[in-house]
Each structure stands twice: as C-alpha cells, then as structure tokens.
Amino acid sequence: MQFLVITLRRFGLGLGLLLAVLVLNFLLMHLAPGDVADTIAQDAGGLDAEVMAQIRKDYGLDLPLWQQMLKYFYSVAQLDLGYSFYYNQPVTTLILEKLPATLLLIISAQVVSILIGVVLGVIAARKPNGLASHFVTILSLVGYAAPVFWTGIMLIILFASMIPLFPIGNMVDVTVERTGFAYMADVLHHLVLPMLTLASIFIALYSRLARASMLDVLGSDYVRTAQAKGLSEFQVVFKHALRNALLPVVTTAGLVFSGIVSGAVLVETVFSWPGLGTLAVQAIVARDTPTILGILFFSSLVVVVANLLTDMVYRIIDPRIQASHTQEM
Amino acid sequence: MTDYSIPQKTLDPTFAHLEHPLIETARMFAGNRAALSGLAMFLIIVVVSLAGPWLYPTDPFEMVWSPFSPPGVKGFLLGTDYLGRDLLAQIIHGGRATLAVGCAAALLSVFIGITFGALSGFYRGWVEEILMRITEFFQVLPTLLFSMVLVALFGASLPMITFAIGIVSWTGVARITRAEFLKIRELEYVTAARSGGASNANLIFRVILPNALPPIVVNAALLIGFAVLFEAGLSFLGLSDANVMSWGAIMGNNRPYILLHGFTIMYPGLAIFLTVLSISLIGDGLNDALNPKLRNR
Questions:
Q1: What is the ipTM of this complex?
Q2: A292 and A94 Cβ atoms separated by less than 8 Å
Q3: A300 vs B258: CB contact, 8 Å cut-off?
Q4: Cα–Cα nearest to B136, from A217, A257, A241
Q5: What is the DSSP string of B58-126?
Q6: pLDDT band at residue B77 under the 50/70/90 scheme
Q7: Between B148, B229, B251, which is nearest A280 by CB?
Q8: Does this model's pTM top 0.90?
Q9: Cβ contacts (< 8 Å) between B233 and chain A: which residues?
Q10: What is the set of domains in chain A, with CATH numbers?
C-alpha cells in the first residue's frame, strides 16, 4: 500500500517535470527566430504578407501567448507534437519509428555497463592493492577522459576496418533481407560496437563506485560477523555485502540516465545507428524545429520513466527505505 | 586535600606546531605523484595552447599541402586534414578555444550551482523546494540535446556555446553545495555567529561558504574536464563556431573520412583525452589532499 502511494507521488513529480519540459519547449519555439509561416514561405519560395497572415491565423499564432501554450499542451496530450515540414510527416510518427533503436542501445549499454562495472568493482575491492584494483583505477580514468565519439571511431578503425569483425555502422545489413532469428542476430552483431562504446564511459563510473562502496561494506561489522560464522567468501561477498554495496550504484544509475541519452546522440552519429540521436542531428542541420523539440520532449520522457523505474528498484533492494525517504539529492 | 584545579596542558599557545590548512593541503598534494604529473601535463597543455601562435606560427586555416598527407610528409609532423591544412598547427591553435570554453563554462556552472545550493541549503523551506525542483528539472533534461537546441536556434558563437554548456552542467555543484550547507548550518560556530548578530549574507558568504568549499573546488576542477568533453561533442556534431579552430571542430571537419584517414581524428582526440585525464588526476589529488579521511579508498 505504502509502496503504491510513494510510486504515485513519484509519478506526479515526473508528470510535473515533463510539463516543465513542455513549457521550455514552447518558450524555445517562440524565442527562436522564424515561425511556421516563415518555414512554409521558405519552402514555397516566398509568399506575400497576406497569405502569411492567413497561415499564422490558421495555426493560431495570432492568439495570446497563454492560449497558444494551452493549445500546445492539449495537442501534446493527444500525442500530437506538430508536423515536420522537412520530412513531411507528423513528428510523433517520425519519433516512434526511431525510438526502439535508441531504447535498444541505451538499455543494453546501461545493463552491460552495470554488470561489468560491478563485477570489476567487486574483484578490485577484495584486494585493494592488487592488480585488479589498479586496473579499475586506470580504467576509470581512461574511460572518463576519452571523448565517447572518439572511442567509437577508434573501435571502428580497429574492429571494423583493420580487423573486420563487426560492421562499421547502421543497424542491419541492408543488402541481405533477413527475418526472424537471423534478423535479430544481425541486429545484435551491429549492436556490439556502439553498445560497448556507450558503455565505456559508464563502466568506468560504476566500477569505481562499486569498488569504493564494496570496500566500505566489507569493513563493516555485519560482514565480519558473517565471516566469523564461517560462511564461504562467495556467500559473504555476494549474499551479504553486495546488496548494500549496490545502493550507490543504483542511485547513480538513475542520475546518469540523461547522460546516457546524451552519449547516445554522439554514438548514434558515429555508427549511423538509426535512432533519435541521428534524427536529432539531421533535424538540427535541416533547422527542423518541431522535430528537434519533439525529440527533446521524448528523450526527457525516457529519462523520467527510467528514473521512476530506478527508484522502484532502489526500494526493492533496500526495504528500509520507506515513505519518509526522498531520494538523497 | 584534593586538588580541583584544571590541569595545565602543555600546548604551545601560539599554535606554532600546527600548519596552516592550505599549506597542509599543498604538502599532501605535492606528495601525490599521480596528481603532480597531472598538474605538470595540464600546465604544459595550457602553456603550449597560449603560446601556440608564437611557438608554431603556421596558420591553422591555410592550405599548405595536399589533403590527407600522412604524418611526417614534407615536414608536417601530424600530416594534413581534408583541406590540406597543417594538423599540428590546428591542434596547437585549437587548444585555446577548447580550454577557454571549458574554463568559462565550468565557471558559469560553478556560479549557478553555488547560488542554488547555498540558497536552498541555507534558507530551507519553500526556497529549497523551488530551487531543488528546478535542479531536478535540469537533471532530467537530456543535457547534450538541450545544448544542441540552444546552439542551433541561437547561433554557434563561442559565448553561446559556453552558455549552452554552463547552463546544463551545474546540478552536481548545486547538490554538493546544498549538502555541505545542510551539514554546516547546524554547527556551533554558525549558531555562535548568528547569535553574535551576523546577517544572513554574512553567514552564507563568510561563515558557511568558506567551510563548504573543499568538495566544491574538487567538483569545479572536474567540471573543466567535463566542459572540454562537452564542447568537443558539440563541435563533433557540427555545432561549432566556424571561424574558430578547436579540437572538437577538427574532428567534426574530418568525420566523413575516418575509415581512410583515421589519423586526422586520432590526434585531436588524443589532445582532448590527455587534457581531461590531467584534469581528472588533479581533481583526484585535490580530493585526497582536502579529505584525508577518504585517502585509503
């Protein structure tokens, strides 16, 4: 019951944040030079002032600002994010078409980086001055300092060009038509390099975090009790210590989600991965404002949903956290 | 008869045996080999970038030889880019813009972050509620996309790029500052200053902020590295000032040719890598020197 109440509260906060993103979108749309009428006029090679005024009237641009804003909210509530004059498609259609590719990339990168990061961190924490520990320290420095798109390009040069193990880009091999299992295998083959590239930053982050929190936990009294009871090291580390050591990792995983979406924009561009990031870059080159603002809204939606899920995972791992808890800012 | 007098401690009343905290920090930092090499590397990068035009006067925009000459040909140590411009000259001259944008953006976000964190941690109540909601909002906003929108809509000039980076990177500083303020505002010396009649501004700036600074300083150092990476990402996507050479812009320019001429991307990327690496080493060293408790992590 309490779980439900907290979840609903979080849900409300998330909705509020999304509403704020919409207000920001609306303001950006109005502050930006040029409006719909200008775009249409440009497409048509110039229109006279009377027609432009008519277009502005049709689109409701002559209404007071607050009415326009309410109209905008109303249409977004019906999943209408405007029309892209560059692609000649509704923005929502455009985005929903590209969203699965981006979700596949960011979710797989997040899962893989948490898994690898935690494993590395645990190995390193068991021998704080061992080889693995130094490896994690160096990895976390290198993984953070290398620009993610540069890592991607270096991986392409190494593992797609010099040693052709993986394709250099795109999500499927367009020269061969595949269905079912073969199609999935092809997508996974294409996914490996972009996913590893995106994961590289976060593996660095998580391994360092997991190492630090594991060291903390391993020094605590209840772990010493577990050891004194004669439990095997495996049981002590994975059954007793890991659960608490994971908490900071989960908190951070929620906080960095917007960073993952940002990284995905760069990684998608490098690997011509057909997701929201490549769409955003193309829309920016084409000055397609409705599309780019639509993407901003949708990716914020992805981050809000991811934060809600993280919060639930956090409360499942740590049942001590109850109603009074507001996640440590 | 029992002696109830307080035993005299043999403390030097001038405290001459204690080091000034800053000196102690500096001594610890100087004892950290990784941090020192980071500092040396960073200083070299800064000096070369600042003195670049005198050290290596070749114009980075001038076409000097055929495009994509491999490193070493005709005395061009790092070769030439897709227009036949000297890559070494571009990297040396490009450091200025990259570092300037990085430092200015970091400064801007530290300023915003301290303001938000200090006000919400000091005043609590509705001030905190509003400011923290705004902070959450900026945490949810996909930073790179938002900066891309800003730069694309309002023009790719250096000040706009700096603003677009600074406006999205401050949430970490705000969180840390707030946490420090929450901790420190309850301490006795703050209560003492308050009962001594200190104004709120006085309490914030002269009593609490100086004591909250250490973690903020570490974060500010790391933010420079973050901003350098961010600027590189924006330029790589083509959102850079076309009249200014920067490391990210070199990579963005040569992006279509990565498979055949990877070196045009490798070297500028390496410059960014070394810069951010040196800043991270400095940041870690500062962290260790300022929080000796954490040193054994």
A1: 0.85
A2: no
A3: no
A4: A257
A5: --TTSB-SSTTPPTTGGG-TT-B-TTSBBHHHHHHHHHHHHHHHHHHHHHHHHHHHHHHHHHHHHH-HH
A6: low
A7: B148
A8: no
A9: 147-149, 262, 266
A10: 1-90 (no CATH), 92-322 (1.10.3720.10)
